[in-house]
């Protein structure tokens, strides 16, 4: 990978921002000294400062010298942040927003129409380089889109989607981590019910879930294709599956994802 030549400011360095910064370094995308990390309490960033990252509580100062700015604060903190950095914005500066429910147009309304804005929605598996990140924009230049894809490929898989699907991506990929974790937890509790110790049951459920996901990724097959391989006539697998379906397993997951998408679209208020 060709190293990035400029500087990157990550504003709001929580789990997502810090994981992205570490991923960029691990993949040789950038050097620690090229990346500035900000948050209100910078004592939480001391370990990263020791690794060579630039650490600051002054958002405007780091934005004034950055080529790429990553907005990684909570939706309710965004408007105040944009007001802080507005005086130092440079024309054609690239902004990457990982803020749920905020459109590219919303950000340009606050910062001016000359800036380039691209949205990215990673999930918490970014911490281990296994994120599913969706990327979207309304009018950013193709080369900037490719740069953002390149950045997030250092921490997992990337799919470019239409911007009107970004709240849907939030529900399926970002919230989805919790949904799959809850399914694994439930499976492990079932394991305890049928005789395993809790630690054994959790290990079995986790590895079985990982194996199921890897089957689909590596075999490039459909879930039902793999399900058919394990469901024999009058067998125990189909009995268990049908019992779960009678109790709403699939429909509850579908309804939960739909509700999360509706909620994700209402997190940010423009005022």
Automatic annotation (TrEMBL):
<keyword id="KW-0641">Proline biosynthesis</keyword>
<keyword id="KW-0963">Cytoplasm</keyword>
<feature type="binding site">
    <location>
        <begin position="72"/>
        <end position="75"/>
    </location>
    <ligand>
        <name>NADP(+)</name>
    </ligand>
</feature>
<dbReference type="GO" id="GO:0005737">
    <property type="term" value="C:cytoplasm"/>
</dbReference>
<dbReference type="InterPro" id="IPR029036">
    <property type="entry name" value="P5CR_dimer"/>
</dbReference>
<feature type="domain" description="Pyrroline-5-carboxylate reductase catalytic N-terminal">
    <location>
        <begin position="8"/>
        <end position="100"/>
    </location>
</feature>
<comment type="pathway">
    <text>Amino-acid biosynthesis; L-proline biosynthesis; L-proline from L-glutamate 5-semialdehyde: step 1/1.</text>
</comment>
<dbReference type="GO" id="GO:0055129">
    <property type="term" value="P:L-proline biosynthetic process"/>
</dbReference>
<protein>
    <recommendedName>
        <fullName>Pyrroline-5-carboxylate reductase</fullName>
        <ecNumber>1.5.1.2</ecNumber>
    </recommendedName>
</protein>
<dbReference type="InterPro" id="IPR008927">
    <property type="entry name" value="6-PGluconate_DH-like_C_sf"/>
</dbReference>
<dbReference type="Pfam" id="PF14748">
    <property type="entry name" value="P5CR_dimer"/>
</dbReference>
<dbReference type="InterPro" id="IPR028939">
    <property type="entry name" value="P5C_Rdtase_cat_N"/>
</dbReference>
<dbReference type="InterPro" id="IPR000304">
    <property type="entry name" value="Pyrroline-COOH_reductase"/>
</dbReference>
<keyword id="KW-0560">Oxidoreductase</keyword>
<dbReference type="GO" id="GO:0004735">
    <property type="term" value="F:pyrroline-5-carboxylate reductase activity"/>
</dbReference>
<feature type="binding site">
    <location>
        <position position="59"/>
    </location>
    <ligand>
        <name>NADPH</name>
    </ligand>
</feature>
<comment type="function">
    <text>Catalyzes the reduction of 1-pyrroline-5-carboxylate (PCA) to L-proline.</text>
</comment>
<feature type="domain" description="Pyrroline-5-carboxylate reductase dimerisation">
    <location>
        <begin position="163"/>
        <end position="265"/>
    </location>
</feature>
<dbReference type="Pfam" id="PF03807">
    <property type="entry name" value="F420_oxidored"/>
</dbReference>
<keyword id="KW-0521">NADP</keyword>
<dbReference type="InterPro" id="IPR036291">
    <property type="entry name" value="NAD(P)-bd_dom_sf"/>
</dbReference>
<comment type="similarity">
    <text>Belongs to the pyrroline-5-carboxylate reductase family.</text>
</comment>
<keyword id="KW-0028">Amino-acid biosynthesis</keyword>
């Amino acid at each position: 990978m060709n190293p990035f030549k400029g500087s990157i400011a990550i504003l709001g360095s929580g789990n997502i921002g810090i994981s992205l910064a570490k991923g960029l370094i691990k993949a040789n995308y950038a050097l620690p000294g090229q990346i500035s990390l900000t948050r209100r309490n910078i004592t939480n960033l001391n370990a990263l400062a020791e690794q060579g990252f630039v650490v600051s509580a002054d958002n405007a100062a780091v934005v004034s010298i950055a080529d790429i700015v990553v907005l990684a604060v909570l939706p309710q903190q965004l408007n105040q942040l944009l007001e802080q950095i507005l005086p130092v914005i440079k024309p054609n500066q690239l902004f990457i927003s990982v803020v749920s429910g905020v459109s590219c147009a919303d950000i340009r309304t606050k910062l001016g129409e000359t800036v380039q804005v691209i949205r990215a929605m990673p999930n918490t598996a970014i911490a281990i380089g296994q994120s599913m990140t969706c990327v979207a924009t309304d009018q950013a230049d193709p080369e900037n889109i490719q740069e953002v894809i390149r950045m997030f490929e250092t921490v997992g898989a990337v799919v470019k989607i239409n911007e009107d699907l970004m709240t849907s991506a939030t529900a399926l990929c970002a919230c989805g981590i919790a949904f799959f974790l809850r399914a694994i937890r439930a499976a492990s509790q079932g394991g305890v019910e049928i005789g395993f110790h809790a630690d054994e049951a959790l290990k079995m459920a986790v590895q079985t879930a990982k194996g199921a996901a890897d089957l689909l990724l590596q075999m490039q097959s459909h879930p039902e294709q793999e399900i058919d391989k394990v469901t024999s006539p009058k067998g125990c697998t189909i009995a268990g599956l049908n019992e779960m379906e009678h109790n709403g397993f699939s429909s509850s997951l579908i309804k939960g994802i739909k509700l999360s998408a509706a909620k994700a679209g209402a997190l940010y208020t423009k005022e």
